[in-house]
Specification:
The structure holds 2 protein chains of 2 kinds. Chain A is α+β, with helices and mostly antiparallel strands. Chain A folds into 2 domains: 2-25 and 182-248, no CATH class; 29-177, Jelly Rolls. Chain A is built from 4 helices and 14 strands. In chain A, the strands form 2 sheets. In chain A, strands 1, 2, 4, 8, 10, 13 and 14 form a 7-stranded antiparallel beta sheet that branches. In chain B, a hairpin with a 5-residue loop joins strand 10 (644-649) and strand 11 (655-660). The chains are: A alpha+beta, B alpha+beta.
Chain lengths: 249, 666
């Protein structure tokens, strides 16, 4: 009897711990959508002389910009890239610079590269991001761009001049936040999805513990079996939880 | 969403009345049965079958309100009797160690069913529920009997109207909107269906197998999750999960991920679930009858009436169940149980006769076989199944090339539904090894349903016979439960291997359901109409006009493909369902398209008085935010010439309704 109580308590502690981590650990949350592969074309080679950039308006504060990059050398060839943010356009004042990031050539068409800024950039402003490709970079570098004006407020620039209308760089804005700070905004924009997520998770927990209670006979509810069986459903659920939270984007 | 909270409660209580009545009837029919699992499973489904038959039969001679009130009054008396009798002689719950797990799983399944249904109405998770099923219910509520087709108002809608008719009765008696009523009807039907399956299999085998069968019917689906590694994860997004859930719900809404599964039926056409609930109840009653556990004459009468109800809710289930009931007859005759054999034959014959009473598809077919001239029997496609929605183009969750038909034993079928084929074969082997022929019943009926599309050809919609495939796959879930239980209790060599295979089969059957759980919130992410409040305001205005009103929608669909779409924010669906409008455009190629299509298209283009008059148009219902410049010009000209007069403008101006000004008005 006592062992069972200890086991149940342990399960409760583990589950509570996992949920605390889920709520408090900061994660990169995308705040913009992404482009479908079909409309994408490789832009480049870009270089210090053929410098690409993009005007965009941030709907939410962000601290990271992600962009697909292809290094055009043999597998494992590397290039170091950075980004610079200006206000308004190519000739605006610089407001932030990302840390440099090394990109490596792989079998994939593009590698998604995160350019992190040291501060959180505010929303409702128009920015211009330009990509820094150091002079002397050995391998050709390509970015991803898209036609069809999928980003009506944005504009692709090459060498400081706007590209023909309707073309944009492929990029995503992200913000590193804990779920606890992110949830209120989602509740306002997508109460239905959040309500369904919550209902689903509560019922999934209930079902997991009912399964545990039913399938493990009291005589065999040793500490280890209870711990392992109790740990598995929440771990699976947390995986599912992270997946479903992206639904509200 | 648009209903008041009390409407959900009142409609739920009224939808539960036939179930309570059925439970009381089942108590009487099964005098020696004390298990709630069995009596409830028989009773709920039979109750639903009886109420759909009763209302459909009575409404031909009395108004819907009277028909609904009479049937529900009878149900209320039986429900009161049940409550009174329960205090003296309660049924045994007797779920052993399973009640918590059964309860929580049932809650989970009902929750998912509710979300799926809601998303089919407000979030375009398939279109059929809002487009036609709920539309019919709303028109019934307005007094549409005999049922004029909302999209072909000069013709009678004669098939699959049982669910909407019951919904309309529930809405009328519950003082509620059809949305709340249909949600209640759906949830009660899901409960009754799963319970009925559990009862039938419990009677065939044991409690654990029965409960597992009910669960598997709810969660079994195609093995699409096996194709997940092929998904194009995250090349152009910082988040693989984002990509997954962006594609996932879309595929879920298109019906591809969970195609042919029970869960997919709910957003597709909830009346089929009503029919399946009745079928499960009748099936369980038939198992009890063949086992000699019932009062035979009343069981024959009640069962045949409930069975006949299926004819107006899910007509394709009718022949499958009929054959399923006749299959054990030779066995019963050989084992000298002629009374039971005769009862089963009588059940099928009486139900077939009773099914002619409501103006359903079977009555229509009996009176005019030429109406079914598009159906052809031949063996060119023997042992194949149509693949509509089953094996679509390669994508996330899918990795097969599209084919229109696949052999029952083709690799592509194994890839999609391998567990089902193993279940059918395996449960027959189990039945042979245990020398219990009844254990092969679900497999035999399932196989029969799977083979129907190989000999029955629908020349208008070749893929339409996939509905039989769906029934066959649903029936293979109980067969799987029988096989899994046998493997789990395997006592010869290789016990652990047998259990491993059992777990693997469960994983194959339920894997896609489990994976897609995480995608569920996505199906309620974006409402179909960005101007829903205005949409509903316009619909409310139209619904308050005298019934019926014929409308021309501008812009609006002209083809069946456009009907099943979110064209112009899905305005056509809201106008016909919540506005109770008739739109004479022609529905599909099974109906009277040729009668309407050309003149309706011309009327949309020109708004000419003679075309509007030919179609009997009363209103022109417009989505101002979607009008093309040409349409706007035609509309402005008609208004300027006093041929149209605006009678309603929604608060934001997105919807404007015009009254057609005829010569008399002028």
């Amino acid at each position: 009897m006592a062992r069972r109580h200890i086991g149940n308590t342990l399960v409760a502690i583990v589950v509570a711990g996992i949920w605390c981590a889920v709520m408090l650990v900061p994660v990169d949350w995308p705040s913009t959508t992404y482009q479908k592969e079909t409309a994408v074309f490789p832009l480049g080679p870009v270089s210090a002389d053929v410098q690409p950039g993009q005007v965009f308006t941030a709907a939410e504060p962000f601290d990271t910009l992600a962009a697909p990059v292809r290094v055009g050398g043999p597998l494992d060839s590397a290039a170091v890239l950075g980004t610079r943010l200006r206000l308004e356009g190519p000739r605006g004042s610089t407001v932030a610079e990302s840390a440099s990031t090394t990109v490596v050539s792989t079998h994939r068409r593009f590698e998604m590269v995160l350019f992190r800024f040291s501060e959180t950039l505010s929303a409702e402003k128009t920015y211009f991001v330009e990509f820094d490709i150091p002079r002397g970079t050995r391998w050709p570098v390509f970015l991803a761009a898209v036609g069809g004006d999928t980003n009506p407020e944005g504009q692709l620039f090459m060498q400081g001049d706007p590209a023909p209308e309707g073309q944009d760089l492929v990029y995503q804005l992200l913000r590193r936040q804990s779920l606890a700070t992110r949830l209120p905004a989602w509740w306002v924009s997508n109460p239905g999805s959040i309500a369904v997520s919550t209902g689903l998770l509560v019922l999934a927990h209930l079902t997991s513990f009912a399964a545990l209670h039913t399938l493990v006979p009291p005589a065999r509810r040793g500490l280890l079996s209870v711990f392992v069986l109790g740990l598995m459903p929440p771990v699976l659920l947390v995986g599912a939880y992270f997946v479903l939270l992206f639904v509200v984007l | 969403m648009i209903a008041e909270p009390y409407e959900y409660l009142s409609t739920l209580l009224i939808a539960l009345l036939p179930c309570a009545a059925g439970l009381q009837i089942a108590r009487w029919l099964l005098p020696h049965e004390r298990r709630l699992l069995v009596v409830g499973g028989v009773g709920l489904g039979v109750g639903i079958g009886l109420v759909t038959f009763g209302i459909a039969a009575l409404v031909q001679v009395v108004p819907l309100l009277v028909a609904g009130a009479a049937v529900n009054a009878a149900c209320a008396v039986l429900a009161a009797r049940l409550a009174w009798q329960w205090r003296r002689d309660p049924l045994r719950v007797d779920l052993g160690k399973w009640p918590w797990l059964v309860g929580s799983l049932l809650l989970l399944v009902l929750f998912i069913s509710g979300v799926e249904f809601v998303s089919s109405i407000w979030h375009a998770n398939t279109h059929e529920n809002l487009l036609i099923r709920l539309g019919l219910a709303a028109h019934f509520l307005a007094g549409n009997w005999p049922p004029a087709h909302p999209w072909e108002p000069d013709t009678i809608f004669f098939y699959r109207f049982g669910g909407p008719l019951w919904t309309a009765a529930v809405a009328r008696l519950g003082g509620a909107d059809v949305f709340a009523a249909s949600l209640s009807v759906t949830l009660v039907s899901v409960l009754a269906c799963l319970w009925g399956v559990a009862a039938a299999v419990t009677l065939l085998t044991d409690k654990s197998t029965g409960l597992l069968a009910g669960l598997l019917v709810a969660v079994a689906g195609p093995q699409n999750f096996l194709a997940l590694p092929n998904a194009p994860f995250g090349e152009l997004t910082a988040s693989s999960a984002q990509k997954l859930v962006d594609i996932g719900p879309a595929r879920l809404q298109e019906g591809y991920v969970l195609s042919e599964s029970f869960q997919q039926l709910i957003p597709f056409s909830y009346t089929l679930v009503v029919g399946l609930a009745a079928a499960a109840g009748v099936g369980a009653l038939a198992v009890a009858m063949s086992g000699g556990h019932t009062r035979l004459p009343p069981s024959l009468l009640v069962g045949s009436l409930a069975f006949a109800g299926i004819g107006v809710t899910a007509e394709h289930v009718f022949p499958v169940i009929a054959v399923g009931l006749l299959l054990p007859v030779p066995v019963l005759v050989l084992s000298e149980r002629r009374k039971e054999a005769l009862a089963l034959v009588g059940l099928v014959l009486t139900a077939s006769l009773m099914a002619l009473v409501p103006e359903g598809p079977l009555a229509e077919f009996a009176r005019g076989p030429d109406r079914a001239g598009f159906l052809r029997l031949d063996t060119r496609d023997l042992f194949t199944v149509p693949t509509h929605g089953l094996f679509p183009e390669p994508s996330l969750f899918m990795s097969t090339v599209p084919v229109t038909r696949a052999g029952v034993l083709d690799p592509v079928t194994w890839k999609g539904f391998g567990w089902s084929l193993i279940a059918i074969a395996g449960s027959v082997v189990v039945a042979a090894l245990k020398r219990r022929i009844g254990l092969a019943a679900p497999a035999a009926i399932g196989l029969f349903a799977l083979l129907i599309p190989g000999v029955l050809n629908d020349e208008l919609n070749p893929w339409n016979t996939w509905r039989f495939t769906q029934v066959g796959l649903l029936l293979s879930a109980p067969a799987l439960a029988i096989l899994i239980t046998a493997l789990w209790h395997w006592r010869r060599t290789g016990t652990w291997l047998a259990r491993l295979v059992a777990c693997g089969l469960v994983a194959l059957a339920a894997g896609t359901w489990l994976v897609s759980l995480a995608l569920l919130p996505g199906v309620v992410r974006t409402p179909e109409s960005p101007v829903l409040a205005e949409e509903l305001a316009a619909a409310r205005f139209a619904a308050e006009l005298d019934y019926p009103q014929r409308a021309l929608l501008l812009p609006g669909p002209r083809t069946f493909i456009e009907l099943s779409s979110s064209m112009a924010d899905g305005m056509h669906k809201y106008a016909v369902t919540f506005g109770r409008l008739q739109v004479p455009m022609g529905f599909d190629n099974r109906g009277s398209r040729e009668r309407y299509a050309d003149v309706y298209a011309r009327a949309q283009d020109e708004l000419a008085p003679e075309d509007l008059s030919t179609l009997g148009i009363d209103l022109v219902y417009t989505a101002q935010n979607h009008l093309s410049p040409a349409q706007q010009t035609v509309l402005d000209r008609a208004v300027a010439h006093d041929r149209l007069a605006p009678v309603f403008t929604s608060p934001g101006g997105a919807r404007v309704i015009y009254r057609v000004v005829g010569d008399d008005d002028g």
